[in-house]
Design a protein that fits this description.
Elements lengths: L1 H33 L3 H14 L4 H13 L3 H13 L5 H13 L3 H14 L4 H13 L3 H14 L4 H13 L3 H13 L6 H7 L3
Helix pairs in contact: 1-2, 2-3, 3-4, 4-5, 5-6, 5-7, 6-7, 7-8, 8-9, 9-10, 10-11
Length: about 200
């Protein structure tokens, strides 16, 4: 009986050590990510996943690190895996959308940003990036709506005014385009002088 108790104690202690080691790896990975050591973070998450291949957060965080290294195919695979393990919050859809957008997977990006907005309609960048996805598909009227929503959520977003201006220009809305370009310039968007001169001062 004494031998059995000792054996159980050893097993239990080993399990606690294993769990702590996995937690330490996750913490180390997060610290390295914050310090922009993305390759180092990936190595820690690799080990955490080896220790527990059902760790959805590890796949998600490793995907974010891959994305920072512009390894979007690897990032998407990790985000897919995290979702398959049940991690389906707004941020996971958003970051996967960003990787799809970077790879010009317009339809996939559009789907992910739409799901992001469904889960959290206050994420401004989801509207902006969905607008980029619509523009990539040539759906400029839809893009216009999303850039406008971005501006509604953040009236100081110079890039959103600029992109809405370009979209208005594409749609033949010269007056609206020029107004957007002027506002973007006032808010600090650089390099618009020639565009405004060419488009608006005629």
């Amino acid at each position: 009986m004494k031998t059995l108790l000792i054996s159980l104690s050893v097993i239990f202690s080993s399990f606690l050590g294993y769990s702590q080691s996995s937690a330490d790896l996750m913490g180390s990975g997060k610290d390295k990510f914050k310090s922009e050591d993305y390759a180092g973070a990936i190595k820690d998450y690799d080990k955490a996943i080896k220790a527990d291949n059902k760790n959805a957060e590890a796949y998600y965080l490793r995907g974010k690190a891959y994305a920072m290294l512009v390894k979007h195919d690897d990032a998407i695979k990790d985000f897919d895996k995290a979702m398959s393990l049940g991690l389906k919050n707004a941020d996971v859809f958003f970051v996967r959308g960003n990787s799809h957008l970077a790879e010009e997977h317009w339809h996939d990006a559009l789907s992910d940003y739409t799901q992001t907005i469904t889960l959290d309609p206050k994420i401004r960048d989801a509207y902006y990036n969905r607008g980029e996805s619509y523009a990539g598909l040539g759906l400029y009227k839809n893009a216009l709506v999303d850039y406008s929503k971005t501006i509604e959520l953040d009236p100081k977003d110079a890039d959103a005014y600029y992109k809405r201006g370009l979209t208005n220009q594409t749609l033949g809305n010269k007056q609206e385009a020029c107004s957007d370009f002027a506002t973007a310039q006032q808010l600090g968007h650089q390099g618009l002088e020639d565009l405004i001169k060419k488009t608006c001062k005629k």
